[in-house]
Write a structure and sequence with these properties.
- The complex is a heterodimer of chains A (487) and B (327).
- Chain A is mainly β and 487 residues long.
- Chain A folds into two domains: 131 residues, Immunoglobulins (Immunoglobulin-like), CATH 2.60.40.10; 334 residues, Neuraminidase (6 Propeller).
- Chain A is built from five helices and 36 strands.
- In chain A, strands 3, 4, 7, 8 and 9 form a five-stranded antiparallel β-sheet that branches. A five-stranded antiparallel β-sheet of chain A has the order 10-34-33-32-31, with no helix packed on it. In chain A, strands 11, 12, 13, 35 and 36 form a five-stranded antiparallel β-sheet that branches.
- Chain B has two domains: 151 residues, no CATH class; 149 residues, Immunoglobulin-like.
- In chain B, 12% of the residues lie in helices and 34% in strands.
- The chains are: A mainly beta (487), B mainly beta (327).
């Protein structure tokens, strides 16, 4: 298990050796250093200043809160040490309440697993620890779709966390660790709403996820207005599950992103009458932290773009299905993934709201020099330094989806396929899908409605595969180094 | 760690009935402890699934007609215009019909086995063309996709608007190049379950009479009723059923009607974990108040989302009392 808390440097002016100890042992490396260097030695468990040490499992079943009271003068630092039965160790600093209670929240524990814990403190040059106690985390709720792990190669993926959504008749944003254990989940049980995207908030303390009424943005038949219901929200759930807030994002669908300043940007469906029937176009809308709503772009404002699509589809213009914000370019990239035909990406200047270029399709501004096939009905993507990695659903008739990477030169306006990955045997994803590059060069792929998650190493070799049980799809992905919300 | 105070309490209580609860030990049940279910308590279930296959013309629109359907796959009556709410078509690209049947029986199909899913609400109709089905917002085009070599096509008629839930009847469609048939009927024998359930040979579970404050724990179970490894997370419901006038043999003989034959049933959803206090069970009349000596009592652990509706665990509850044991 990753131990992000332990990696952090002490935030008080305390010698690191005085804090770095193994809780299950009375003899610590810190103690060894102290003795050898003649510094003040650690005095452990001689007099216990700890009272009322207890722990409870929070709203998120893999998060444990430990509370205690310390008698006597306040310590310079107090923390909790958590030890798994497998020897894994965690150290989390505590915060002190006004009433004198110390509290530490421990995230990223494994579900349905017992842990030892003990409070510790540093005062007057000495470390003391409470007696060791045990608590078990909760099991994963049965309602969350089961994930079957297929071990390939090492069977363990890159050290990090994967945030996605498991979508069945309900939607469950989940975080998986490198062992494919669910270490965070939330159950959105409103069956009228579907979630496709979850993100860690820019402050690192919340999980954001969308929930929208699919019927509102997918008219079920030609001629449906699709406008009578526009329920769409972005949920904001604190990592400990104790705070939940909901933002309305009318007619929002498929995807959203968050800018560094906390502004949310999301895709919207916009219906306009065309030749006697309502036709859906899409747009990008921003919701600022102060509540200001700004329409950044509407496909309806770009007749050149849309004229090339009519009447290729009956009632939905090229469907926006994925959104990314690229800070270095202050631009949005939008995937327009037409279900029957060739797909397109549009880059939108955030300041002007104007399209900068189109990639793909008959109206492409960027010349694609070589590729094994044109991408079509593509979904989520990853803008790389000089390229773009995308999930290409492909045409239904071919039933062969893939992850594909193009080099992208925005000066010469040329692109070229440089890599692709197909499942063996071929797998078809008729909706959803995502491909994202990992920090060390690997790739993680969500196969959307095919309910499969693949992790590839930098050489493109499969190192981890997860499959959902029948009836559950996987949403868009976000790779996380860790959760930084522990105090 | 046991403190001296706790240790003293344990020693003081050892062997002294005064320290025990209101009803005391009962049979193998020890008061105050969880009632642990064992594999030897479980019934055995063997269910064969036989889904008919209808040859149809390849790459043609097909009319599906279920107006003649009057019973579902377990023999329960239904009204085709009222009870069938959704028509679904699933493409299993790499599985044969036999593999799909086996996967449904064993409940071990993955979503990645499904290449395409199309559906439509019936809105009271008893027939529909495949072209009326939708893949998300888009019409399914049988003239393009209904090909012989695409895989195995399974039609489902369900009583639920949620996808993949509430299947009442099923039929394989088999596109054949040389076939001209463009109409299929889904009837009472399109799918047949051949079920053998044995509940007379299991070890009964003794449970104190009139005592709902008993925690049932199934942590120790290793296998389900089909002999497969038990997936704990599949269990999402616990049910106790009472049959006032039926013997075990009579219940066994009509196993598929077990829910209809029960005089009372109390259930609770299992959100997580592998134990439940029986007082959490309930029905429209109220909470479960415990078993008594009348009739037959069954306890089941169910998976309501599995493709195979048979309980993963089912046992017979044997009411007991501490007074009876002393006699």
């Amino acid at each position: 298990m990753s131990d992000f808390a332990a990696r952090r440097k002490p935030n008080l002016d305390i010698p690191w050796w005085a804090r770095w100890t193994f809780p299950s042992s009375r003899f610590s490396p810190g103690l060894l250093v102290v003795v050898l260097m003649g510094a003040p030695s650690c005095r452990e468990d001689i007099i216990s200043p700890f009272d009322e040490v207890h722990a409870f499992v929070g709203d998120i079943g893999t998060m444990v809160t430990v509370e205690w009271v310390i008698s006597g003068s306040s310590p310079q630092l107090s923390w909790v040490e958590v030890t798994g039965f497998d020897g894994s160790e965690r150290t989390v600093d505590a915060e002190r309440d006004a009433d004198g209670t110390y509290r530490a929240r421990v995230f990223q524990l494994e579900p349905n697993t017992p842990y030892h814990y003990q409070a510790a403190m540093f005062r007057d040059g000495y470390i003391a620890r409470s007696a060791q106690k045990t608590i078990s985390t909760n099991a994963v709720p049965q309602v969350i779709p089961e994930l079957n792990v297929e071990e390939t190669g090492s069977g363990v993926g890159t050290d990090g966390l994967l945030l996605t959504v498991l979508i069945s008749n309900i939607s469950c944003p989940v975080i998986l660790d490198a062992n494919s254990d669910l270490i965070w989940w939330y159950i959105q049980d409103d069956e009228d709403l579907a979630a496709t995207r979850a993100l860690l908030s820019s402050d690192g303390e919340h999980v954001l996820f969308n929930s929208f009424n699919v019927d509102a943005v997918f008219p079920s038949e030609e001629g449906d207005t699709g406008t009578e219901v526009g329920e769409s929200y972005i949920y904001k759930v604190s990592l400990d599950g104790s705070e939940i807030s909901v933002l309305e994002t009318p007619m929002g669908h498929h995807d959203f992103t968050q800018l560094p300043d906390g502004t949310l940007a999301y895709l919207t469906a916009e219906f306009q009458e065309h030749e006697g029937q309502l036709v859906r176009g899409d747009g990008v809308v921003e919701l600022a932290p102060d509540g200001t709503v700004t329409q950044i772009w509407s496909a309806w404002d770009d007749p050149e773009l849309y004229s090339s699509w009519f009447p290729s589809q009956d009632f939905v213009l090229p469907m926006a299905n994925a959104l990314e914000y690229v800070e270095s370019e202050d631009a949005y990239y939008v995937s327009l993934g037409q279900i029957i035909g060739i797909g397109t990406f549009v880059k939108i200047d955030r300041g002007t709201g104007e399209p900068v270029w189109l990639l793909g399709g008959e109206t492409s501004d960027i010349e694609i020099l070589s590729q094994e096939r044109e991408f079509s009905h593509q979904h989520q993507f990853d803008v790389l330094d000089n390229g773009i990695l995308m999930f290409d659903n492909g045409l239904e008739i071919d039933m062969d989806s893939r992850a594909v990477e193009y080099s992208l030169d925005q000066h010469s306006m040329q692109a070229e396929q440089v890599w692709s990955y197909h499942a063996e045997p071929a797998l078809y994803t008729y909706a959803g899908g995502d491909a994202s590059r990992l920090p060390e060069g690997g790739t993680v792929i969500s196969w959307g409605t095919a309910g499969q998650l693949d992790e590839l190493d930098p050489d493109g070799q499969l190192v981890r595969r997860l499959n959902t049980q029948l009836g559950a799809a996987t949403g868009y992905l976000q790779w996380l180094d860790g959760l930084a919300a522990e105090p | 760690m046991i403190t001296r105070l706790e240790l003293g309490f344990v020693l003081a209580c050892a062997g002294f009935p005064a320290c025990q609860g209101s009803h005391g030990d009962c049979g193998s049940y020890v008061d105050g402890e969880s009632l642990f279910l064992q594999d030897s308590n479980n019934y055995s279930f063997h269910g064969g699934m036989d889904i008919s296959s209808a040859p149809v013309a390849e790459m043609q629109d097909i009319l599906v007609d279920w107006s003649g359907l009057s019973v579902d796959m377990v023999g329960h009556d239904l009204d085709p215009s009222v009870d069938i709410l959704t028509l679904e078509l699933v493409l299993f690209r790499y599985l044969t019909q036999e593999q799909v049947e086996q996967g449904l029986e064993d409940d071990d199909l993955n979503q990645s086995d499904v290449a395409l899913f199309a559906s439509t609400e019936t809105n009271g109709s008893t027939s529909a063309y495949l072209s009326e089905l939708n893949v998300l917002a888009y019409s399914f085009d049988p003239e393009t996709y209904l090909q012989q070599d695409y895989g195995t096509w399974l039609l489902l008629l369900t009583d639920d608007l949620d996808y993949g839930v509430g299947t009442r009847m099923a039929l394989f469609l088999e596109p054949v190049v040389a076939e001209s048939n463009t109409r299929v009927e889904v009837g009472n024998d399109s799918m047949v379950l051949d079920v053998e359930a044995i509940i007379t040979d299991l070890e009964k579970v003794e449970l104190p009479q009139d005592e709902p404050e008993v925690t049932v724990d199934w942590t120790a179970l290793e296998y389900d009723s089909r002999g497969n490894d038990l997936v704990m997370s599949d269990i999402d419901q616990l049910t106790v059923a009472h049959f006032a006038n039926l013997t075990l043999e009579e219940i066994q003989a009509s196993f598929l009607d077990i829910e209809l034959l029960a005089d009372q049933m109390w259930s609770a959803g299992i959100e997580s974990g592998s134990s439940l206090r029986l007082s959490a069970l309930g029905n429209d009349s109220g909470s479960f108040t415990g078993v008594d000596s009348s009739g037959t009592w069954l306890l089941s652990l169910n998976c309501t989302t599995c493709s195979n509706p048979a309980p993963l665990f089912l046992t017979v509850l044997e009411p007991c009392s501490s007074e009876t044991d002393k006699e």
